[in-house]
Specification:
It is a single chain. This protein has two domains: 38 residues; 206 residues, Cupredoxins -  blue copper proteins (Immunoglobulin-like), CATH 2.60.40.420. The chain has three helices and 20 strands. It starts with a helix and ends with a strand. The strands form seven sheets. It has a four-stranded antiparallel sheet with strand order 16-6-18-19, with no helix packed on it. The chain has a four-stranded mixed sheet with strand order 8-7-10-13, with no helix packed on it. It is mainly beta and 248 residues long. The structure holds copper (II) ion. Copper (II) ion (CU) binds next to loops. Copper (II) ion binds next to loops.
Length: 248
């Protein structure tokens, strides 16, 4: 989660040879961070997203243009499955986040690159009001094209090594495409609050710093749609949850 990463990088910057001063500084720094991040809670929701039913056969797409950079075929990549049918690149969020959930003072930079005519990563998270830097590492022209409902549409031509920064004001899940290469698809998920996560290749996600209570967990995957489950955070911790999504 953004908050956890922000705190870790702050504490890692302290270096001095005097042990006593380091201890005092660390204590002061940690106390400061705790004050900055508001009240802390022990509640954790830890879980994974899995596919119910038989895994569909992977789809390949023939590439007929710009093969000198793009290659001759691509994986559809719209359903990332582990051998145990765990789903990667699913987005999980709390529909009812804890009251007063605050963003860290400085969120990480969000980048989406284009490499061999594929968006990397395919799914990114950005806070509402935040910016995504679109990169192009390919020695050819792409264009980034999106027609969102609640954010501003854009369609920008992009030569190699030009960075295009786009700011997203409103929470929304936005598809990014390239008009030159029909198989190129990616997603920008604009988050309403800090309790959003993208599952890893093992389907796992985790939310911490939660007060006890009932939460509605929502899960979105580009091919499987959305599903939601109720989760109760209490004792014992953490609250394990497995979210099943139906095969297409
Ligand atoms: Cu392209």
């Amino acid at each position: 989660m953004w908050i956890a990463r922000h705190q870790a990088s702050g504490a890692g910057t302290l270096r001095t040879s005097r042990r006593g001063r380091v201890t005092r500084c660390l204590t002061a720094l940690l106390a400061g961070l705790l004050c900055l991040s508001g009240p802390s809670f022990a509640g954790v929701i830890k879980g994974k997203v899995v596919l119910a039913g038989a895994a569909p056969a992977p789809r390949k797409i023939d590439v007929t243009i710009d093969q000198y950079v793009c290659g001759t075929e691509k994986d559809a990549a719209d359903l990332l499955l582990s051998p145990r049918k765990e789903i990667g690149n699913a987005v999980v969020w709390l529909e009812n986040p804890p009251a007063g959930a605050a963003w860290p003072a400085r969120a990480d930079k969000v980048e989406m690159d284009q490499k061999a005519c594929v968006y990397v990563p395919r799914v990114v998270l950005v806070p509402a009001g935040g910016t995504v830097d679109f990169l192009n590492s390919d020695r050819l022209l792409h264009n980034i094209h999106a027609t969102p409902k609640d954010n501003v549409s854009f369609n920008r031509t992009q030569p190699k090594n030009r960075t295009i920064s786009v700011t997203f004001a409103k929470p929304e899940i936005i598809k990014i495409t390239c008009d030159l290469h029909a198989w190129m698809e990616a997603w920008v998920v604009v988050a309403a609050h800090p309790y959003y996560a993208i599952t890893g290749a093992d389907g796992q996600f985790e939310f911490d710093n939660l007060p006890p209570g009932n939460y509605r967990l929502k899960v979105w995957q580009e091919r499987l749609g959305t599903t939601s489950v109720q989760v109760t955070v209490g004792e014992p911790q953490p609250t394990p949850v497995t979210v099943q999504m139906k095969a297409p």
